[in-house]
Design brief:
CATH architecture: 2-Layer Sandwich
Number of helices: 5
Strand content: 15-25%
Structural class: alpha+beta
Number of domains: 1
Order of helices and strands: EHEEHEHHH
Strand order of the largest sheet: 2-3-1-4
CATH superfamily: Transposase IS200-like
Distance between the termini: 45 Å
Oligomer: single chain
Amino acid sequence: MANTYSQISIHAVFAVKGRENLITSKWRDQLHQYIAGIVNSIGAKSLSVGGWKDHVHVFFGMPVVVSISDMVGKIKANSSRWINEQRFVQGTFQWQSGFGAFSHSRDERDRIIKYIMGQEEHHKINTFKEEYLKWLTDFEIEYDNKYLFEFYD
């Protein structure tokens, strides 16, 4: 789109179906790199991809021609297809339905990137449920417990 400019930074998070710890250290970095490639191929700008055994964080510069829902849907569909093609897990890999998406200002970028890249250390202290509920509270997002991710802590 000519003469259309934006600076929209989105931090999306989504979880493995059943919250199983399927994303092992053996292929986790490959997955994060693959997701960064998906983000860039859609016309967004990958800023950081990280996560842990049962979830992924994707921080990206949002293009104005794609909705957040379409963006995350493409990331999840393409990455799950790739995981299954690579046969990283027994059976069929799937992401849970839904996702969280949080916007951040440009001056928060370094902090969010550092947070995403430090997931292993972070999850020695906080569970995914604790971190996700904190974001919903901090961003003043109203939610219904029955529509949250499946949490098995």
